Each structure stands twice: as structure tokens, then as C-alpha cells.
Amino acid sequence: SSKTSTKQCELCFDPIEDHKGGRQGGIEVCGRCLVADFGGRLQRRGFRIHVKKWTETTAPDQKGRTTTFFFYEVKAKLLSDLKLRAVFTREGFGSRIRKLFIKELQTGDPLFDDSVYLQTENEEMMQEILANEGFRSAVMEILTLPAKTLTIADQEIWIQKDKPIVSGGETESKDADYTVGLAIVAHHLDRYLNQKKATSEHNTGAYR
After folding, report:
1. Looking at beta carbons, which pairs linking 156-159 to residues 24 or more positions away fall under 8 Å?
2. CA 18, 135, 191, 174: dihedral to nearest 10 degrees?
3. Tens digits of per-residue pLDDT, 39-73?
4. Is 68 left (phi over 0), alpha (psi -120 to 50) or beta?
5. Residue 122: CA count within 13 A, CB half-sphere
6. Does pTM top 0.70 for this prediction?
């Protein structure tokens, strides 16, 4: 009979069987959660993840051609209100230009700082959350799927992507990766909130 590992999935808390899991976004994840086969297990933690898909078609151009865009949004609701708003996007030419005029929060992690553009008004709390390497890793993994944006808005977090639909081509891909990525971000934020509750006012509060 096969032996089972004593490791536990940090998303659903089920045991991880040998060779049937992996590490993603800084946490150990079981094989089922890696493919977004959550069943009702995440609901035990109070997580609710919803997927919304829709299309929008542009008006015809001078030659009568239109472009149809496929939109995909994954949204999760946290157990508690973070009282934080932040938007993460992949670093691009436009964001590099904005950095010349706007001081951006830096984490000290060159890979993250060079590849992710962050907008937030609550820099102190965001700095505490970004102190965790797993959270930074989870954000970078989402934005390389690629995702257009990762947004934190108080008690909700969501990923949105869009891409042109090519006639006869594949319209969606990596759906499970987006859902798992958001679940891992929700996990890190949930842990941060729990740690904040348990941390003395005299301590740093940085999420490790």
C-alpha cells in the first residue's frame, strides 16, 4: 500500500498524498487544488470564488471589420474587510513612464519591483503584506498568466484579463490557473488578517 505524506494542503487543509501536490505562490497545495478542483473544501474556510465570462464586440470600422474581445474575471470575497485598495499590473512602458513622475512603493525585491506596477493609497499596510515572499510570488504568477490586473478592494479581490478572440481559434485558456492563483492570494491575505488580530500593538505587524 502507498504511503501518504504528513504534509497538509494550505488551501483546503486536506492531507497531500505523495507526489500529488506542489508548491505554488509560497504554499503547499494538493493535487486537486492545483487544478481548481476545490469542491466545497474552500467554503469551509469561508472563501467564495466566482468566475464571470463575457464578450464585447467593437463597432465596425471603415471596412466593416469588428473585433470581439473575450473578458474573464475571477472574484473572491475575504472573510474580513482589509480596508485596503490596491491594483497590481504588469510593468510596461506606460507604467515605467509614470514612475518618472510618481513615487512607487518598493519592496526591496528587485524581481517584483521591476515586473509589477502597484497603485495603492495605504502604503503602510501594503508594505506589511508585501513583506511576505509567498504573497509577492503569488502576485507575479498571476500577472504572468497573463492577467490584465489584480485588484484588492476592501473585502473583495479579483483578476481580470482580456484578449481578442480569433475567429475559429481558442477563446479561453488556463482558467484553472487564474482560479488557483486568486485562491492563493486570498489565503495570504486571510493569514495576514489573522496575524494582525493576534499581533500586539507594540510589534511590527509585518506579515511573514
Report:
1. 156/75, 156/76, 156/77, 156/78, 157/75, 157/76, 157/78, 157/182, 157/185, 157/186, 157/189, 158/73, 158/74, 158/75, 158/76, 158/182, 159/73, 159/74
2. -60
3. 888 888 888 888 888 888 889 999 998 888 888 88
4. beta
5. 14
6. yes
